[in-house]
Design brief:
Layout (H helix, E strand, L loop, with lengths): L1 E6 L5 H15 L7 E6 L12 H8 L18 H6 L2 E4 L2 H10 L8 E3 H4 L14 H29 L1
Parallel strand pairs: 1-2, 1-3, 3-4
Helix pairs in contact: 1-2, 1-6, 2-6
Length: 161
């Protein structure tokens, strides 16, 4: 199963979500059957943009090391990631709309917000340019959904085997 996590520029929220999800998948020995990637859908998303230092720091607090040279993925330049995805998770409803407008490759694919897939209402708002505490709160909001998301992934993977 291929999961694609999207946000505007792929420098904060989707990076945090990808890292936390991969960590939990590895802990549950599901990393061999689930591949997670992330990318940005906004017009200003750019391949090679540096991952936010604040995102890296809040992940370090979780025992996850994101190297300083880590960079963002622009989905406009990497449309194959959308084409190959079995499930797409966005941080906001607005990003789902951007995806539907700019990426015909997403047509017919299951697309949800991160919270929606976990059974919770609302969006994960962008912490960019804000205080470190806002990044920590964003990480915690993302983290609060991981277990429910993994349960749904496990069900989907189990039904494929």
């Amino acid at each position: 199963m291929r999961i694609l996590i999207i946000c505007h520029a792929n420098t904060s929220r989707s990076i945090i979500a990808q890292a936390l999800l991969e960590q939990r998948l590895e802990e549950r020995a599901l990393c061999g059957c689930v591949h997670v990637s992330s990318g940005g859908v906004a017009p200003f998303a750019r391949d090679g943009a540096l991952v936010s230092l604040d995102a890296r720091l809040v992940l370090r607090d979780e025992g996850i090391d994101v190297p300083p040279e880590s960079v963002a993925t622009d989905l406009k330049a990497n449309r194959h990631l959308v084409s190959e995805a079995d499930l797409i998770l966005a941080m906001t409803r607005a990003q789902i709309e951007m995806l539907r407008i700019a990426f015909p490759e997403a047509t017919g694919k299951p697309v949800f917000t991160w919270k929606e897939f976990a059974g919770v209402a609302g969006d994960i708002e962008d912490p960019a340019g804000r205080e470190p505490e806002v990044f920590a709160a964003c990480r915690d909001e993302i983290k609060a959904c991981v277990e429910q998301i993994i349960d749904r992934i496990r069900s989907a993977v189990g039904s494929r085997q």
